[in-house]
Amino acid sequence: MQQIFNFIIRNSNRLLFLLLLGISLALTIQSHSFHRSRVISSANFLSGGVYERINHVNEYLNLRTENDELVLENARLKSLLFNKEDTTKIPLADSIKGVKPADIIVSKVIHNSYNTHENYITLNSGRNDGVKQDMGVINSLGIIGVVDNTSPRYSTVVSILNMKSQINAKIKKSNHFGSLTWDGKSTGFVQLVDVPRLASIKKGDTIVTGGQSVIFPEGINVGTIDKIYIQDKTSFYVINVKLFNDMTNLGHVYIIKSKDREEVINLEKKGKDE
Amino acid sequence: MNSALLVNIFRFIVFLAIQVVIFNNMNFLGYISPFPYILFIILYPVNSNRSSLIFSSFLLGLTMDMFCNSGGIHATACVILAYYRPYIFKFSFGLSYEYQTIKLNDSLTPERFSFILVSVVLHHIILFVLLAFQFRFIVDVLLRTLFSSIFTIIISIIIIYLIKPNRR
């Protein structure tokens, strides 16, 4: 017994080091391996508050570009409004084109990272505003990511510039599906993989979100085809997609609260149970 | 004793604050970002309690991880740097050097420079390896380590000169 105590006292530094190293390595590996529910995230009172303060200053400096974007979006919405043929016959539609019955939560990016392989965005609305895990996040130009962690007032988002992110997307004109991933190289481009070679595609075609995922409604803009590669071993295309969004410069965003989501998930669960 | 503790707490908060507010937003050429917050570990009093250094470095790294959404990579790199700090001291100042007489925030000698260099490179290589976590990014990791280390060292030396106590 004496010897054990002596050993612990003599090696207290090393034991402390090994303990803390173990904890931090476990946190690292956990954050790399599991897609969801990381232990340490910036969706909390301290870092969320700090980022909100910093964002107040930055926002003031970017008022001009923000205004320009709002004017553009206003113009787009106005044109949609004026081009409607008969206002009495419209089925219940929401503010964004192509959205099925869904609610929109307006939120603001208070912190945005884009210089690592796994990027996250922090938003200034959380559980109190109705944000839940796995909700889609878009802005006026296109998709941004999927909600990851939430706290009462803040939430983190897995950006599409994250190698762990996989979002269902399709080619607008031909309905061929693929999944949207990122190779970690350029912030302006993402990759659409697993598109069958049967699909007739050419440079400049538009990519939109597909209807297979319950996170995003169908038909939200992603980007245009920039380059097309053919995988030798398989019969699939790898498409380089140029994003409509500038992911390094994000302001106001919309969180999509899909009403069908729970119904679809319950239905699929039922199918698996039986 | 008490004043040293207060100075350390003050440094902890100040280095963390400037890192989060200023240097985390500095994406030079898209991927080069300096991490001068590790000056807290580098400038920690030389002859003080070693386990308190390791533990406070862990807290420092964990807080950085919280702000960067990065799991535990900063914590790992900081803990390793804190644990190997005495060995780096021996490496750059030599065995015969008395620990008590080393003052880092003084004029820059080759020994002090080599100490900062080795510490920064050790921290950054662990950080970027864990950040990428895949072998196919090895070139990317090395490039990031190289450029970010250069950037961090320059900024660290500027900060050391700025906070140097002015005796003359």
From TrEMBL, chain A:
GO cellular component: plasma membrane
Record's keyword annotation contains Transcription regulation: no
GO biological process entries: regulation of cell shape
Record's keyword terms, sorted: Cell shape
Highest taxon listed in the record's lineage: Bacteria
InterPro entries: Cell/Rod_1 (IPR042177), Cell/Rod_MreC_2 (IPR042175), MreC (IPR007221), MreC_beta-barrel_core (IPR055342)
Domain Rod shape-determining protein MreC beta-barrel core: 109-257
Gene3D superfamilies: Rod shape-determining protein MreC, domain 1 (2.40.10.340), Rod shape-determining protein MreC, domain 2 (2.40.10.350)
UniProt family annotation: Belongs to the MreC family.
Alphabetical list of PANTHER family matching this protein: CELL SHAPE-DETERMINING PROTEIN MREC
Protein's name according to its UniProt entry: Cell shape-determining protein MreC
UniProtKB/TrEMBL annotation, chain B:
Taxonomic superkingdom: Bacteria
Transmembrane segments: 5-22, 28-46, 58-84, 113-133, 145-163
Protein name as it appears in the record: Rod shape-determining protein MreD
Keywords annotated in UniProt: Membrane, Transmembrane, Transmembrane helix
